Amino acid sequence: MRDRIFIWVEIPVSDMGRAKAFYERILATEMKSMHMGDEEYAFFPVKEEQNGGILVNGPRHTPSPDGVTVYIDGSPNLDIILSRVSEAGGQVIMDKTYLGDHAGYVGMFLDSEGNRIGLQHL
């Protein structure tokens, strides 16, 4: 059995400045930016041994509310993060919802680029 199945997440964006500001605002964090070839990246902060992810802007990446849903850790309180979504340029599409002891609380929003993103807090 593998230790990990999912190791990396890339969230496509069409406007890096807008998207980076959106995620920094709702998650109350700072992201580091980088360019490589024709792509632009902003890295979500992670501790060593954690899975990571980025925002990516480039010709092969198109934001969409359809397809795979990425869930971000909503700890310690989804309400705080969800309350920042609208003023940061996104739209809450599912308020905080309890799914039971096995899954905890979830919420969902469209980010500033139109991607459907979930939040979960166990």
Residues in β-strands, percent: 35-45%
User: Can you identify the CATH superfamily?
Assistant: 2,3-Dihydroxybiphenyl 1,2-Dioxygenase, domain 1
| Class based on secondary structure composition and strand pairing | alpha/beta
Q: Mind summarizing the main beta sheet?
A: 4 strands, mixed
General description of the model:
This protein has a single domain (8-121), classed as 2,3-Dihydroxybiphenyl 1,2-Dioxygenase, domain 1. The strands form two sheets. It has a four-stranded mixed β-sheet, covered by helices on one side. Strands 5-8-7-6 form a four-stranded mixed β-sheet, with helices on one face. It is α/β, with parallel strands linked by helices and 122 residues long. The two termini are 24 Å apart. The longest helix has 12 residues, at 16-27. The chain is built from two helices and eight strands. Strand 6 and strand 7 form a beta hairpin. Helices cover 16% and strands 37% of the residues.
